[in-house]
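pasting for the record
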Amino acid sequence: MKMLMVFAATAMLVDIAVAVDITVGRPNGGWDLSTDLSSWAASQTFSVGDNLDFQFISTHDVLEVTRENYDICGLGSPISTTVASPARFPLTAAGSRYFICGRAPTPQTTPPSSPTPPSNDPSGSSPPPPISGETADPPSSAITLKMTAGSILGGTHCSQGMKVQIDVVSTPSPPPPQSIPPPASTPPPPQSTPPPAPTPSPTPQTTPPKPTPTQTTPPSSPTPPTNGPSGSSPPPPISGETADPPSSAITLKMTTGSILGFWLFVMMLLSL
């Protein structure tokens, strides 16, 4: 954005610099007979968009004419005539433009001659008075023709160099603006990424234990006590619990022990 603002301000300054007001003859002269207008114009540069200003006194004027009338100081059919100062001519197009002064020289009034002092001639003669009925001779035809030609050709003002040719050049178009790449942006510092939040482990759902059905075991028949050497008997069943019936192996073992115990008891009785 800052670069665009600088470019716009530069373009405005270029436009201001192109539009120039140029005063004819300045700085060392003007629109008059004493200025070398041809040399002045050769030292200037006139561009499209400039303004050409004429400043002059009341005995001068400004006529814009064609090239043909410029060469011969002709006054016929001028492009424009300006008699009031200052006069401004905008230079709107490239090419040559021609300006002259169309005023004739101002006739000079001859001062009256001083009276002749009386002569001390002893004769006291005086010049003879003019003869009655005589008139002065009119100017010759050559003088009249010269004055008429001077008026038609612009008088001595134009013929004495009071004319100027302005060569206007086209203003060079400014180069197209170059696209300025935007400044490389500094990458932001890397931001520390917070560690991911731990995923909570799924809470195991506590399944209530299913009640185990109580199996009712029918009571087993009481086992007769054995007189065997072991003399061990199965533990009585716990109240509330029903003992499982003995297997066939246990039943066979108990039966064999009972028989052996019985014969042992009989032999002891016989030995008495």
